[in-house]
Amino acid sequence: MTLIEIQNVREKLLADLDAISGAPELEAFKLAHLTRKGTIAAMFDELRSVSKEEKPQAGKELNTLRQSVEARFKEREEELGATGGHEEHGRLDLTMPARPVSVSTPGHEHPLMKTLNEMIAIFERMGFAVENGPEIEDDEHNFGKLNFPPDHPARDMQDTFFVKPTPDWTPTSKDQPLLLRTHTSPVQIRLMERQRPPIRAIMPGRVYRNEAASARSAVAFFQLEGLVVDKGVSMADLKGVLLSFARQFFGSDAKIRLRPSFFPFTEPSAEVDVSCYICGGKGCRVCKNSGWLEILGSGMVHPNVLSACGIDPEIYTGYAFGLGIDRTAMMRYGVSDIRDFFENDYRFLEQF
Ligand code: DAH
What we know:
Layout: H1 3-19, H2 23-34, H3 39-46, H4 55-79, H5 111-125, E1 129-130, E2 136-138, H6 139-142, E3 162-163, E4 178-180, H7 185-194, E5 199-208, E6 220-230, H8 235-250, E7 256-263, E8 266-275, E9 292-301, H9 303-308, E10 317-324, H10 325-333, H11 346-349
Parallel strand pairs: 1-5
Antiparallel strand pairs: 2-4, 3-4, 5-6, 6-10, 7-8, 8-9, 9-10
3,4-dihydroxyphenylalanine binds at residues 183, 185, 225, 263, 266, 297-299, 320-322.
């Protein structure tokens, strides 16, 4: 390998580079000549066999060869728009339109609202009206008229967020404590106060609990309340409506079961489970091998509650139920952390 040979190779590579007309060719050039297995590296290897006297000169010439080829390569890369990675900022085109946010289906329903809207549609088909009530409630509606005894633990500071109408407000003995409703049941009271039976309504809405947030419980979540008051309403009606709801919402072979329970505002009270929609009742991870999933609380409206709203319990009877929308949506979609619903992470929301 003589000096002349090295110079010839340099001239040839520079000429080749100048002749290149596209990014793929340029990439091929790089592979052939500029990588560790390329021609130039091979020539450096050959230096070993050059005589001691010629070595310094040949080394210098080789360095010149490498530097000039690399410099020209960079120029060509920029001309052909073939740069990648760290050099990209040099070619930023600020006039280009922005890339759209990467959502495959922009503007669709939130999974919670989707669940809620499906539930509303099912109950509307069964003749239920949709009613609403305030999220800031007084003690009387959230607890008192729902037959909570004055010392009931649910009134405890731990569960309830109390609200001050103004920062310097101090409650006097005749003021009622104000609070963020802890359930949708107070809407039952407001409805019975303003409407005479027959009543047949659902009351969806947001509720608040002063609890530590976890995978299973959030500080704010959604419930759907149901209330039917009329002459001759029985527990059988409640069971029929809930079974029909379960079949429409979870699938035609869904089953329900009622377990005795306690709520101050119903007597008798029952918790309702639906057969696990994943395993169909055989037992799996979601239902913790029980085959059943708890979906709601329910019961016959307590006579004290009817009386508190001016409805004669000797003439009218009613049933009520309260269903957790978030929990039901979690079951339905296999979501394991309730907080996912509120974090607005596209990667989560896009899946629905
Ligand atoms: N309000 C109850 C809760 O938040 C749920 C509930 C249970 C509502 C039984 C009802 C009912 O209407 O009858 O835990």
